[in-house]
Each structure stands twice: as C-alpha cells, then as structure tokens.
Amino acid sequence: MTTSTSQESKRKPWWLLAVAILAVGGLVAAAMAMTADDGSSGAEGPLPGSIGDPEIRQAKWRFTIKRTSGKLSKNQRASLPTQRKKLRTMAQDIFDALFLSPENQRRALRANVTPSARKSYQRTGVGVPKGADDVRIRRRSAWIVIDQNARATMNVNVVAFGQADKGAFATAHRSVLYVAREKGGWKVFGYEVDQQPFKKKKASTKDDEPNDKQGKSSEKTKKRKDKKKRSRDRNRGGDGS
User: Is residue 218 very low, low, confident or very high in pLDDT (cuts 50, 70, 90)?
Assistant: First the structure.
C-alpha cells in the first residue's frame, strides 16, 4: 500500500500536460508571427521616410544571378549562396534609397560604394528629381554576374513615375555597377549610368502591314493579268491577218 501511494503521488495531473502543450503552441505561434513581420518589412514594403505612393504596390525586385565559368574551391562554393544574398541586398539598399527614400541615400551609398566612386556617382544626379513624392516604381530588376566570388557586375534597371517640384516625371534608369569583395564586404568601385525620361514605346503597326502587303500584292496580280490579256489580244489579231 505504501509503494502504490508513492507512485500515485509522483504522477503529474493530466491538466498540467495540457497546459504545457498550450504554452508551447503559444510560443511557436508568437515566433511565427515575429518571422512574418520581419519578412513583410523587406524591400517590398515601405521604407523609413518613403516617398512612394501609398495607394499602390511597388513593382517587385527581379534578380538574375549568374557566375562566370571556372572552377571554385570548396570554400568558394560554400560561400556562393551567401555572396548572392549580399549582392541582392546591396542592389536593393542602393536603389530603393535612390528612388523611394532619399533621406537614406547618403547612408546607403556610404555603406556600399567606395568614397571616390560615391562622390562622382552622386554628381550624376541619379535617382528622383528634387521634391519628388508619390513615386511609383513600375520596374526594378538586376542582372548580376559573379566572378570567382571576388568581383561582380550589376546591371540594374529602374522605371519610376511620380510628382516633383517641376511637375510630373517619368524616369528610366540604368546603372552598371562594378563591385569588388574586400575585407569589409562588397563595395562598388566603378559604374556606368544612363538615366533619361521614360518614353512609352509606340504601338506596333504590324496589324496594318499585312493589309498593305495584300494591297500591293493584289495590284501586282492585277497588272500581270492585264498584261497577259493584252498579249492574248495581240496574238489573236496576228492570227486573223
């Protein structure tokens, strides 16, 4: 009897197990909620001091990342996914600041561009015009080529619309950034820039071309028929004489 009583006293009530399960479930749900919040605050969401149009959703970033041919060491292969992520983050950081959050522009360029390249790059007037607001990004993409995990080339394209001090604007921007991996991480050391007013492509007239060709073809066919008819008439006249 003593032994049986001792065993029963050691058993935990069933409701304690239920409480423990509910507590663990609550912690998991909270962790998932925190993870979701972190994901939604990425490059697609509004940035601090954003001048983006709050009524629309900005175009998503589109990345294509390749590496040049050549053998990689075991360590280089292992670090390749990390380097890809860092280069994507660099592109987002620089160009989201240039076009959506000018107050972060200096920080973004200082963190990702060498001092000499940064000063000259800023002098090109890249990004949105003065007093820009309600910016709408219609396109933002980056083609990145990595060379042996030590060098990379970024070809970045952005199309942006919005309002500025001088009125509405539409900008088509293209930058080619030359990047090197240093002890402090990846840094832009050179660039090419082409930024112009965005112009819509003219509507294609291909639908009209077949009609024009058909008209020209029918005219040629008609002329051939008339020529054959005149030839037959001349031959008939010769036979009669």
Answer: low
**β-strand pairing of 133-147 with 61-67:** parallel
pTM: 0.64
CA–CA gap between residue 121 and residue 174 (Å, rounded): 13
Phi and psi at 182, nearest 5°, equal -115, -175
Segment holding 98, helix H or strand E: helix 74-100
Q: HSE on the CB side for 169, CA within 13 Å?
A: 25
Give yes or no for a contact between 121 and 184, defined as CB atoms under 8 angstroms apart: no
Q: What is the pLDDT of residues 108-124, one digit of tens each?
A: 999 999 999 999 999 99
Longest C-alpha distance within the chain, in Å?
146
Is residue 18 helix, strand or coil?
A: helix
Query: Please, what are the domains in the chain?
Result: 61-197 (3.10.450.50)
Question: Measuring CA to CA, how many Å separate 4 from each of 1, 9, 10?
Answer: 5, 9, 10
Q: Tally the C-alpha atoms within 13 A of residue 11's C-alpha that lie toward its C-beta.
A: 9
Kindly report the backbone phi and psi dihedral angles of residue 72, in degrees, each rounded to the nearest multiple of 5, phi listed first: -110, 145
Distance (Å, whole) CA 157 – CA 221? 50
